[in-house]
C-alpha cells in the first residue's frame, strides 16, 4: 500500500470520511524526508477538518450528500440510509434572548467564556499545530484539541447549557444546506464550544423531518475542526445583526 493510501486508511480508522487520494497528496507536507506515518495522518486530518467540504476534489465521486428533496417540508419523516459528512455554517441558541446572545458573543470575541461566576480565558489562535519542533505530530493533532474552560467539573458541560436547544445550519459536500435542530441535548453543541466550519458525521438512521435534521447523540458524531475565516466573519456578522435587533426591539418598546 502506498503512502497516500495508508494515510487514507488511517483517517478511516479514526472515524473520518475518506478523502480522495488526489486530495491527500495535495494535503501532505512538502518536505524531505517526510515525517513518520502517525504525524502525516495527524497533519492530513488537521487539514481535512479545516477544509471546505464543498471542494470538489475532497471526495471521490459520488460524494456522500443529502438525499434528493431533503429540504422538502412536505416529507413528514425519513431516515438517512448512509453516513453524511457536513459542516456547520451557523448556530443559534433558541433558549436565550437576543441580549444574552450579544453578551455571549462579546465574551467569545474577547477570548473569554463564562462558567458560573468564573471567567475562563480561552486560546484565540489555532487550536492545533501540525508538527512539534522535532517533526513529530503534536498530541493535540493526534487526539484532538483540548478545550479549557468549556467543561465543568467531571468533564460534563456547564449546567447552564444542559437545557439549551440549538439550531444549526449544516452544509453537505454538494453545497446543500439544511437546518439541524437538537432533538436531544448534545454537550459539544453550543456558542463558544462549536466552531463555524466544524465537521459532523450524520449517521445512517438520523431523522430528517419536514426538511429539518433532528440531531441526536446516537446519530450525530462531531469530528472537530474549524474554518478560521468563516468563524471570524460569523462572530462579527452575528454580533452586528443581534445588536441591530436589540436596538430595534428597544425602539419598538418606547
Shape: globular
Order of helices and strands: HHHEEHEEHEEEEEEH
How many β-strand stretches?
10
As a percent range, the share of helical residues equals 25-40%
Q: Count of helices?
A: 6
CATH class: Mainly Beta
Largest sheet: 8 strands, mixed
Span of the ends, CA to CA: 71 Å
Mean pLDDT: 81
What structural class do you assign from the helix and strand content?
alpha+beta
Number of domains: 1
Strand content: 15-25%
- Please state how the strands of the largest beta sheet are arranged side by side: 1-8-9-6-5-2-7-10
- Please mark out the parts with pLDDT under 50 across 5 or more consecutive residues, or reply none: 115-120, 126-160
The name of the CATH topology is: OB fold (Dihydrolipoamide Acetyltransferase, E2P)
What is the CATH H-level superfamily?
RecQ-mediated genome instability protein Rmi1, C-terminal domain
Q: What is the CATH-assigned architecture?
A: Beta Barrel
- Roughly how many Å is the radius of gyration? 19 Å
Written account of the structure:
- It is a single chain.
- This protein is α+β, with helices and mostly antiparallel strands.
- The chain has one domain (3-253): RecQ-mediated genome instability protein Rmi1, C-terminal domain (OB fold (Dihydrolipoamide Acetyltransferase, E2P)).
- The protein is 29% helix and 19% strand.
- The chain has helices at 3-13, 21-27, 37-49, 98-109, 139-143, 228-253, and strands spanning 78-79, 84-93, 112-115, 118-121, 166-171, 177-182, 199-202, 207-209, 212-215, 220-224.
- It has an eight-stranded mixed sheet, with no helix packed on it. Strands 3-4 form a two-stranded antiparallel ribbon.
- Strand 5 (166-171) and strand 6 (177-182) form a beta hairpin.
- Helix 1 crosses helix 3 (37-49).
- The model is unreliable at 115-120 and 126-160 (pLDDT under 50).
Amino acid at each position: 500500500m502506498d503512502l497516500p493510501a495508508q494515510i487514507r486508511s488511517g483517517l478511516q480508522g479514526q472515524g473520518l470520511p475518506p478523502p480522495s487520494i488526489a486530495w491527500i497528496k495535495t494535503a501532505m507536507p512538502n518536505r524531505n524526508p517526510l515525517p513518520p506515518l502517525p504525524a502525516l495522518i495527524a497533519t492530513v486530518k488537521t487539514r481535512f477538518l479545516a477544509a471546505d467540504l464543498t471542494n470538489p476534489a475532497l471526495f471521490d465521486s459520488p460524494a456522500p450528500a443529502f438525499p434528493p428533496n431533503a429540504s422538502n417540508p412536505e416529507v413528514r419523516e425519513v431516515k438517512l440510509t448512509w453516513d453524511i459528512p457536513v459542516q456547520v455554517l451557523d448556530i443559534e441558541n433558541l433558549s436565550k434572548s437576543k441580549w444574552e446572545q450579544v453578551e455571549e458573543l462579546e465574551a467569545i470575541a474577547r477570548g473569554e467564556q463564562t462558567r458560573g461566576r468564573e471567567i475562563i480565558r480561552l486560546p484565540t489562535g489555532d487550536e492545533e499545530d501540525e508538527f512539534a519542533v522535532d517533526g513529530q505530530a503534536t498530541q493535540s493533532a493526534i487526539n484532538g484539541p483540548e478545550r479549557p474552560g468549556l467543561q465543568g467539573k467531571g468533564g460534563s458541560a456547564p449546567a447552564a447549557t444542559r437545557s439549551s436547544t440549538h439550531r444549526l445550519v449544516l452544509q453537505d459536500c454538494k453545497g446543500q444546506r439544511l437546518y439541524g435542530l437538537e432533538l436531544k441535548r448534545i454537550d459539544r453543541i453550543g456558542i463558544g464550544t462549536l466552531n463555524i466550519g466544524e465537521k459532523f458525521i450524520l449517521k445512517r438512521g438520523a431523522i430528517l423531518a419536514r426538511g429539518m435534521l433532528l440531531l441526536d447523540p446516537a446519530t450525530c458524531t462531531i469530528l472537530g475542526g474549524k474554518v478560521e475565516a468563516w468563524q471570524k466573519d460569523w462572530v462579527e456578522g452575528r454580533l452586528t445583526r443581534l445588536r441591530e435587533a436589540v436596538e430595534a426591539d428597544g425602539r419598538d418598546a418606547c
